[in-house]
Amino acid sequence: MDSYNQLIEEITANVQHINSEAGLFQLKAEYLGKQGKVTALSAQLKSASVEEKKRIGQELNALKEIVTKLFNDKLQAITIEQANAQIAQTQYDTSLRAEWNKRSRLQGGYHPLTLIKREMEDLFHSMGFAILDGPFIEDEFHNFTALNIPQAHPARDMQDTFWFADKVHCLRTHASPIEIRAMQELTPPFKFIAPAKVFRNEEIDASHEAAFHQIEGMVIDKNIGVQHMVYFLEKLVQEILGHHTKTRLRSGFFPFVEPGFELDVTCHLCEGAGCSFCKGSGWIEFCGCGLTHPNVLIAGGLDPNEWSGFAFGLGWDRFAMIRYGIEDIRHLQSADLRFSQQFRSY
Ligand SMILES: [Zn+2]
């Protein structure tokens, strides 16, 4: 045991004088390496009796543990010392201008869909609307039946649907099921918008994606008429597309509204004169809208004699394309950094 303690004292003294990692590793090899002094002590085991072997083995292990800790502690101390020295040597010039051009190459930006969503949420929030969402996976009732689209209704064929194997659940084909969920859960009067990702089993081209986005809106109150809807949508269009933007209503068919309309806005590129974007008409489709069908109110648990409402749904991707002049909807989900980097805020 005395020789062990001597060895520990010797190593402690030697380690103190080391001040580099390389020096420390060399010293460690002298004691713990294959030919090292500590390793050599194992030779005692060969000639020892079984009793002694057990005792010597335990003592040897304890010694190795102490010596290893000595080296590890020193290594940690050297590492910290080196880092501190490096920090002390580094000089910062706080008067230097930030290198924006170099840095901005590495910096991300918000996706145009996120920019539109935030803008819409801010606007609607300021008008007292709630912001809602619903599940991606819907059942037949919420996606179709409750929205006045019974089985075998031709409107079901208008929306190519991703059905699950049970033929009851599907990926929501539009944002309108959120209307039903809202009516079932909220106490009228209420108003909300719901920015939502929706899915259609469609062929993909420059203006069609299998997954795209809609913003649904609904107002439920007493004695709501078309005039309320028109006033509201005109204000909305002017707020988000500019006060010079004109609107027009065309009749349109959506099973969940009666009467139903398509709202057009003057083309932002030619301001109504006609160009290739608006196919010469001067108008572009902005959203579908209408007064909520009594069957839909009933499906949502509301009495159509007491409550009425209007709803609108606009293509969120299409709105982003109009706003930012994006010519192909597939860019929006391309995950191509060259595309998204164009929308940095500086
Ligand atoms: Zn135009």
From TrEMBL:
Identify the domain of life.
Bacteria
Q: Which InterPro entries match?
A: aa-tRNA-synth_II (IPR006195), aa-tRNA-synth_II/BPL/LPL (IPR045864), Phe-tRNA-synth_IIc_asu (IPR004529), Phe-tRNA_ligase_II_N (IPR004188), Phe_tRNA_ligase_alpha1_bac (IPR022911), Phenylalanyl-tRNA_Synthase (IPR002319), tRNA-bd_arm (IPR010978)
> For this protein, what is any one GO molecular function term?
ATP binding
Keyword set, alphabetical order: Aminoacyl-tRNA synthetase, ATP-binding, Cytoplasm, Ligase, Magnesium, Metal-binding, Nucleotide-binding, Protein biosynthesis
- Documented EC number(s): 6.1.1.20
BP GO terms, sorted: phenylalanyl-tRNA aminoacylation
Pfam families registered for this protein in UniProt: Phe_tRNA-synt_N, tRNA-synt_2d
- Record note on cofactor: Binds 2 magnesium ions per tetramer.
Q: Kindly list the cofactors needed.
A: Mg(2+)
In terms of Gene3D superfamilies, this protein maps to: Bira Bifunctional Protein, Domain 2 (3.30.930.10)
Which residues does the record give as Mg(2+) binding sites? E258
Primary location recorded for the protein, binned into one broad class = cytoplasm
Q: Does the keyword Aminoacyl-tRNA synthetase apply?
A: yes
**Where would I find the Aminoacyl-transfer RNA synthetases class-II family profile domain in this sequence?**
109-322
Q: Does the keyword Aminoacyl-tRNA synthetase apply?
A: yes
Which NCBIfam families has this protein been placed in?
pheS
Protein name (Swiss-Prot/TrEMBL): Phenylalanine--tRNA ligase alpha subunit
State the organism named in the record: Entomospira culicis
Lineage runs:
Bacteria, Pseudomonadati, Spirochaetota, Spirochaetia, Spirochaetales
Q: Which gene encodes it?
A: pheS
